[in-house]
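Incident log, structure service

09:12 report received: a user says their structure output differs between two submissions of the same chain.
09:20 pulled the input from the user's history:
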Amino acid sequence: MSMDTEKAPAMAGPIAPLPEDKPKIAFHGAMMAIQNFGFFIMYWDIWGATPYDDVCDSTRYATGMMSLTCFAVAFLCVGMAMGGATSDFYTFTLMWFLHLIGGSMYTACTVAVPAARYSTDGEKCAKLAPVNGDRSDAVYLMHAFLYLFYVGGMLSITYFSFLKAKIAARTLPPIYVIVLVVVVFAIPQAVVYTTL
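09:34 re-ran on a clean worker, output below:
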């Protein structure tokens, strides 16, 4: 039996990263987790320091929602990356869809936080606690700036774990999967936007 030095073909299963893509999956998951845990801590502090006054209700709601969302997705993105890097279909799929719900909430918060902070009540709230108002400005600017890096991380994990093999085979995921992704991403945002 001879030992070939050629690359082994991609696995036949639906979650089939190439060996050289597994570190990329792991590092994207790590970067996403670090970003999310950082925003969890920052928004947690803002939420807790926001005055308990009627004009601050929307600011407390938005920053609290962002904080708790970031805590949840900090470990879900690691789970998603773990499932991808280990070619574990069930772990990848479960964590990917749970993370998609969290990512939808993260996206909703990217709209809700400034809508609350820069509303008339949000400006009054910031004047009640000027340091907290300034801190929420700075944290949100960082949040908005890094939003596309976060989306890129999820798309990269998805590509290296699942889509790269599909594209190489010139196939697409079934239409029901694409529709399910759109629905799962849209529903949490719709709930948030209707309750603002």
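09:41 both user submissions now match this output. Likely a transient worker issue. Closing.
09:42 reviewer note: DSSP finds six helices and no strands in the chain. The helical segments are 22-49, 57-85, 89-117, 120-128, 130-168, 175-195.
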